User: Fold these one by one.
Assistant:
Number 1:
Amino acid sequence: MTESDVIRILHRHCTEQKLKFFAHVYRGTKGYILDGFAMSQAYRNMRTIGYEVKVSRNDFLQDKKWQNYLPVCNTFYFVSPPEVIRKDDLPAGIGLYHVVDNRLVCVKKAKRNEFDKDAVFEVLQYIVLSRGLSERMKVKSAVSHMHFAQNRANDLERRLRNTQRRCNEVENELWEIKRKVKEATNGR
């Protein structure tokens, strides 16, 4: 099993969990590459998950940089074939998924922590600047926003006409009341 195989399985897993997944993400200018970064698609209570893929035990034992990813993650998981990492190899709070039959199996649940907003901003900035929307998607997005703005303007214009019509009706009612009051007071 290769790292690419695991990344594909991880991508499918995150998609099933309704998470936005990005492979091989830099943590800003620090030069650290996180194998997988996923985030919930929410403005409030955003959840971020970091994944470090290991396909050999030696790679796992030699890796000293994975702790640099913790500030960008609410939860952090190693992902490996079963023979590479054991649950008791990991410190408290760090999670573990094993790849079994092309699926992820949670061996150890990660503890949820708060992420560092500045560190997450670095990751998101990298994603936007290096993997931003294609020109076609930018145009499609701009057209969509333009249609939304035009529909909103049309709605506001319709509401304004209705308000003006109602004001004219109220003004006419007021003149009618004044006329009737004047007639009533003149007729005395």
Number 2:
Amino acid sequence: MTIYLDHAIVPSHTKVASARRLAELLGVPWAETALGPFSAVYVNDGLTLDFIETDEPFPIYHFCFRVEPNEFDAILARIQAAGITYRSSVRGPVDHRVNTDFGGKMIYWNEPDGHQWEMLIESYARPAPR
């Protein structure tokens, strides 16, 4: 059986601005108004991040995007052009460096609501297939 993650709901104090910003950084489509109360970011053919607006407090979520090396460089360039601070470690200081541990590249940044985005080219979350 194959199981796919179809969508996740991301709480936000500014759903349209947050969805637009993430979509522009990733270079993917988005919709200001999707089904129901969501602003949707279409991450790929099978995953949508649905931003929902709330005035209530919410936990900070962490999302990691695995991309191809050329996409990594393009997204990083857009992050830099937007003046967004980023770091090389999950809880470290803003150092504007790319982490090359695990044989790849990775960075972390936070969006205005506090959610933490991670981008990498090699997954460290599971062993490489043999």
